[in-house]
Amino acid sequence: MTMPLQSFDEDLDASLDLTPLIDTVFILLLFFILTTTFSKPMLEVLLANADNASVKEVVQEKLNITITEDGRIFFEGDLVAPEEIAARLEKLPLDAAIIFNIDKRSRFGLFVQVLDAAKSRGLSNFIINVVLPEARGDGRSG
Asked: What does the pLDDT read at residue 141?
């Protein structure tokens, strides 16, 4: 007995469903948009080098203060005029930590001005970010 050959149905629709692929692409696109949106822009600051610094973990409320090479002062990324420093520090609780990111090419007087305003407010928990020797990789200080 021989089997008859099956005939090919030309009306049969042989298409590829792209819906799962499109769903996956949209999910990936949404993921990348959200991760780049929620990342904080960083100010470019060249930190000073320190050979004897230690790493400290901050658990209480903190405020990031950045002083750039050209003398601009930023509180949590917002540009602040020097005369607004005291008013901004008034809003902090006394146990708050102030994290300084000071460009090593900036004027030292600006750092002293911010530090003095914080001390007169009664704040005393200061952290100064520096570059550690192992992060430099050159073994030199300065």
From this structure: 46
d(CA 87, CA 95) in angstroms, rounded, equals: 17
In DSSP notation, 27-51 reads HHHHHHHHHHHSSPPPP---BPB-S
Say if CB 97 and CB 64 are below 8 A apart.
no
Backbone angles phi, psi at 9, to 5 degrees: -90, 110
Q: Where are the domains of the chain?
A: 62-136
For 4-43, give one letter per residue: b (16+ CB within 10 A) or e.
eeeeeeeeeeeeeeeeeeeeeeeeeeeeeeeeeeeeeeee
Extract the residue ranges of the chain whose pLDDT is less than 50.
141-142
d(CA 102, CA 130): 8
Q: Which CATH topology does 62-136 take? A: Nucleotidyltransferase; domain 5 (3.30.420)
Locate tokens 């952290």: which residue?
127
